[in-house]
Design goal:
Layout lengths: L1 H14 L1 H9 L6 H14 L20 E3 L18 H5 L4 E8 L1 E2 L6 E5 L4 E2 L1 H4 L10 E4 L14 E14 L5 E8 L29
Parallel strand pairs: 1-2, 3-5, 6-8
Antiparallel strand pairs: 2-4, 2-7, 4-6, 7-8
């Protein structure tokens, strides 16, 4: 029985996580999307280490949409159970909100999902797993994409609008999310140009991935 169990474990690794981890261990050149993300991040990182001080003004919000800031998420006092969501955020649960943030660059992104942070951030799930330096003000964004489609790695500040979900939830990548946004469209809109950056997502048949 022990031998059979070992065989089953080996087969499970071979068909799921192992090829993915080995692929990340190869010395492959960066993709054009990775190069663009790195260059944009370096530019924002030089702006006094606080990119939000240099964000351009966002256009007027559409009717029925409330603008949110990352500073609106948690109160100043940390209680026994950690940071607590503000009354403003709780009152906006289930409503349309708009938020400006930066897409987190991940080594193992979840298909159809991006992490939105107040500053440009890069994490390596292969090396560190879920033990990374993500700030607490992280919003998990679920884009309406075909199953298995990766979100294009997009540099610079993004202006995202969608329905806000509030409350702790365990995610497939091992993290817990407290705030989630579900946009009505898969398009990613940069704040600077105020136009659609990725109206069309590469199809699975193209065999192209914007993230490693």
């Amino acid at each position: 029985m022990r031998f059979v169990s070992l065989i089953l474990i080996v087969l499970a690794l071979a068909t799921t996580g192992l090829p993915r981890l080995l692929a990340h261990g190869r010395q492959t050149p960066p993709t054009p999307a990775e190069i663009a993300w790195s260059r944009a991040t370096m530019k924002w990182d030089k702006l006094n280490r606080d990119a939000r001080n240099f964000l351009p003004p966002r256009p007027a919000a559409p009717a029925g949409v409330t603008d949110l800031e990352f500073t609106d998420f948690y109160g100043a006092v940390i209680g026994d159970r950690g940071p607590e969501l503000t009354a403003k955020v709780r009152a906006l649960a289930g409503q349309q909100v708009r938020l400006v943030g930066f897409m987190v660059r991940q080594s193992l992104p979840t298909p159809g999902v991006l992490l939105l942070a107040p500053q440009p951030v890069q994490v390596d799930e292969v090396e560190y797993g879920a033990c990374d330096d993500l700030p607490p003000q992280i919003v998990r964004v679920f884009l309406p994409l075909p199953a298995g489609t990766q979100v294009p790695l997009t540099p610079g500040p993004l202006l995202l609008t969608g329905t806000l979900e509030v409350g702790q939830q365990s995610e497939p990548d091992g993290r817990n999310s407290f705030l989630r946004i579900r946009p009505n469209t898969p398009a990613l809109t940069p704040l600077i140009a105020s136009r659609t950056a990725a109206a069309a997502i590469p199809s699975a048949s193209s065999q192209l991935s914007s993230q490693p």
